[in-house]
Amino acid sequence: MEPVVFAAERFGFHAPFFEVLTDGLIHKTYKVTANNRSAILQQVNTNVFKDLDAVTSNYQLIYKHLERSGKLRIPGMLKTVDQQLTWVDKENSCWRAFEFMANTYTETLPASPEKIFSAAKCYGEFTAALNELDAQHLKPTIPGFHDLANRYHQLQAAVLHASHERLNKSRLLLEKIRQRTVLVDFYNGLKSNPDFRLRAMHHDTKLSNILFDKASGQAVCPIDLDTVMPGYFFSDVGDMIRSMVSSQDENAPADSVSVNSEIYRAIISGYEAGIGSTFTSAEQENIHRSGMMMLYMQAIRFLADYLSNDVYYKINYPEQNFERALNQLTLLEKLDAFVSASSKA
Ligand code: GN1
Ligand code: MG
User: Fold this and answer.
1) Residue among 251, 258, 271 nearest 335 (CA)
2) Does the pLDDT at position 25 exceed 80?
3) Which pTM value belongs to this model?
4) Can you give the residue range of the structural domain that contains 95?
5) What is the CATH number of the domain that holds 264?
6) Cα 96 to averaged position of ligand 2 atoms, centre (Å)
7) Is 25 in the pocket of ligand 1 (CB under 6 A)?
8) If you measure from the C-alpha of residue 337 to the centroid of ligand 1, how many angstroms do you get, rounded to a whole number?
9) Would you say the CB of residue 305 lies under 6 angstroms from ligand 1?
10) Which residues, at least 6 apart from 345, have a Cβ–Cβ distance to it below 8 Å?
11) Are residues 148 and 79 in the same domain?
12) Per the count of CB atoms within 10 A, which of 24, 77, 123, 195 is most buried?
């Protein structure tokens, strides 16, 4: 029997029908159905999320906070037959299950500006709904996750241990990254500036992490909350720009990336509509920096993984992490040009 079938049994789904859902780069996700009941079952990557209890307790905290606020409902976690929220199988894989939200679906790129606006508004509402939750009560599920100085440092460390071949191939990208360390300085500055709040950020705001309602076509709620932890304003709006402003994601060839101005405006205005008055003026003034911050960080992360022989992100061919880094840096250059031109207009 497949491991997913054993796991489904533990969560009370006997002899289930199962589908593999489009998996991200980290976990394996399934939809299981038995006796007309469905659930989302996930095999959690515990190499990435080493403290699964922290992930689970954050989820419960967020769930209850949102439930009390009455503003947004996210899928509840399901319990095993012996009332546990997670289960470890005999191969030592960790499993958990979520309620399947009926009549919802996920969107893929390219999507219309209306869809993107709705997704961005939903992420903004999520930030706003968590505004009253003391971010310090959330555990950092991946320490230093969107800490740009930490990511830059990890890249330097990867350079020291890289093979000659991979290092040589990366020289131009490393130079381009070095030329933009002003973004790292900006990050270091905002950490000690009280005008930028420490917030509960989602940190993985791609389009496919939003559930849409089948009837209305409108966004319902964000999912994939493993990386909700303390962070700063640029992460959520920035990761939307990073992952949605071009018509395809980071796996597309670098020469195909472009900035879609209508999508860019839909992200900014959607997020602003959702977050309302909870943004500080310093955060608002720097909103157009956020996409660049996230593209820069993601390029650094992909290149560091390439130089470390692909230990983190799933790859389908040997040079994929290099190509992803090139894609993100190319988009960063195009976004920089677009933002500068728009600010002069
Ligand atoms: C990973 O697997 P997925 O799609 O949820 C990563 C994000 C990256 C993203 C790039 C925990 O997210 O930070 O932005 O890949 N998540 C983790 O596609 O590292
Ligand atoms: Mg994720």
Assistant:
1) 258
2) no
3) 0.96
4) 3-102
5) 3.90.1200.10
6) 15
7) yes
8) 26
9) no
10) none
11) no
12) 123
